[in-house]
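We modelled the chain as a single entity of 72 amino acids. Its sequence is:
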Amino acid sequence: MSDTLHLKIKKEYAAALIEDLIKLDAVEAIREEEIELTPAQKQALDKELENVKAGPDYLLKWDEVKHQFKKD
């Protein structure tokens, strides 16, 4: 199994459990700056950046985004 998960540790005891798992070599800590995008992710990001540069109106206003996801 080689899944990569990003965790936000919310409780002190959870941090201790994670540290124990690291010591047992059951999990590996990867610093955020070490995470690499896949070529496909890089290509998708480059395309989005090109769209934004070509027309800033490509982006939605924050109020429009909130409205799309607002629960009624």
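As a brief sanity check on the tokenised model: The radius of gyration is 19 Å. Residues 12-69 form one domain.
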